[in-house]
Amino acid sequence: MSRLATTLCGVSLRNPLIAAAGTAGYGPELAEVIPGSRFGAITTKSITPESRAGNAPWRVTDLPGGMLNAIGLANLGLERFLGEMLPELKKIDSVMIGSIAGHTIEDYVEVAAAFGDPAAAVLQLVELNISCPNTASGRQFGDDPALLSEVVSASKAALGSKPMLVKLSPGSPDLPELAVAAVRAGADGLTVSNTIPAMSIDPETRRSRIGRASGGLSGPAIHPIAVRILHEVHTRLMDEDCLVPLVGLGGVLSWVDAAEFTLVGATGIGLGTALFIDPRAPRKIERGLDAWVRRQGATGIQDLVGTFEA
Ligand SMILES: Cc1cc2nc3c(=O)[nH]c(=O)nc-3n(C[C@H](O)[C@H](O)[C@H](O)COP(=O)(O)O)c2cc1C
Predict the structure, then answer these.
(1) Ligand 1: does its nearest atom lie under 6 Å from the Cβ of 99?
(2) Angle between helix 145-159 and helix 105-116 axes, rounded to 10 deg
(3) Closest C-alpha to 261, from 241, 246, 239, 276
(4) Closest C-alpha to 222, from 245, 201, 253
(5) Cβ distance 57 to 211 under 8 Å?
(6) What is the pLDDT of residue 1?
(7) 222: closest CA among 71, 70, 65, 69?
(8) Spans of the chain, pLDDT less than 70
(9) Which of 55, 216, 257, 264 has its CA 20 to 30 A from that of 305?
(10) Cα 46 to Cα 75, 151, 257, distances in angstroms
């Protein structure tokens, strides 16, 4: 068996590399450029019940340390996703993760129920994107422990036995507390984390470089922050005796970045911005990680998860 083979929430992955939500299209678009077999898993774009056009342009801009985006959950909507995309996902040689989003608890429940249906068996895992504003309160689901618990438990009940990751939203000051709330409400694993709220202004026009005042920062600039957050979440979940598998996500460009996430407790390693920069990144990271595991004298990468010592 490969040194990089791993298990995430009971699902076997050939390696820990996971294409991040929204950076792989629905899955087939990425598989046209990079074979699905390079990834342990591929996450779809976040799906809402209704189709959404998303925000006005510009939605993405390059910055020295990464990318700033304000896509606004543009997607086909649940019905077209199920009818047009699910058959295509079956052709991809990777584990598929369905990403769920919404603006009300009912939205999440509707998509979770459809993803839990036997007709959606190609989605072996799901991920809850909770970085969405709640229509009723205006607050993000991921910023408030009570709202977070409500959306997680309702989604899990609608989904059934399929494993569910909850993708934390890093805007909140006490992420470990939110992590514990998500696990206690039924999350089988956590993805840590989404983009970090940020701004970029063109001094000549005095306007934002994207279509809204602020957006989400991804890429190398956020990697050390994501490592710190993952470490804090892992430590708190251990202290509270409720550790679940974690996916490290944020600014991974090289095997060194991926190894850092492994050491602070990540079973899965997300890749987003890296896929826009270099289609060979997954292969290079896979090779580098494999050599690192061998140099460490470990049988497999799973033996190195969470072995960081301060
Ligand atoms: C263009 C773009 C679109 C994204 N769309 C989604 C999305 O639909 N759902 C989601 O949960 N995250 C979305 N994200 C966030 C990524 O999944 C990931 O959390 C973030 O980019 C940090 O990882 P990275 O630094 O490796 O890119 C998007 C990111 C980018 C850059």
Answers:
(1) yes
(2) 30
(3) 246
(4) 253
(5) yes
(6) 59
(7) 65
(8) 1
(9) 216
(10) 7, 16, 25
Q: Which amino acid is at 80?
A: R
d(CA 72, CA 212): 10
Contact 71, 46 (CB under 8 A): no
- Burial pattern 258-268, b for ≥16 Cβ within 10 A else e, equals bbbbbbbbbbb
8 Å CB contact between 265 and 231: yes
Q: Which of 17, 18, 23, 246 for mutating ligand 1's site (highest number of atoms within 8 Å of CB)?
A: 23
| Residue 125 φ then ψ, to 5° | -140, 160
| pLDDT value of residue 172 | 81
How many angstroms separate the CA atoms of 86 and 23, rounded? 18
Residue whose CB lies within 8 A of the most ligand 1 atoms, among 99, 195, 229, 247, for a mutation test: 195
How many other β-carbons are positioned within 10 Å of the β-carbon of residue 309? 4
132 is catalytic: yes
Question: What are the pLDDT digits (tens) for 223-273?
Answer: 999 999 999 999 999 999 999 999 999 999 999 999 999 999 999 999 999
Determine the Cα–Cα distance for residues 163 and 23; give it in Å rounded to an integer: 22
Q: Is 219 in the pocket of ligand 1 (CB under 6 A)?
A: yes
Backbone angles phi, psi at 220, to 5 degrees: -55, -30
Give CA–CA dist 99/77, Å, rounded: 12
Tokens of 79: 């019905």
Burial (CB count <10 Å: 0-12, 13-18, 19+), residue 1: exposed
The minimum-distance atom of ligand 1 relative to the CA of 75 is 8
CA gap 97, 253 in Å, rounded: 21
pLDDT digits (tens, 9 = 90+) for 155-191: 999 999 999 999 999 888 899 999 999 999 999 999 9
Q: Is 250 in the pocket of ligand 1 (CB under 6 A)?
A: yes
Residue type, 192: V
- Domain architecture of the chain: domains with CATH: 6-304 (3.20.20.70)
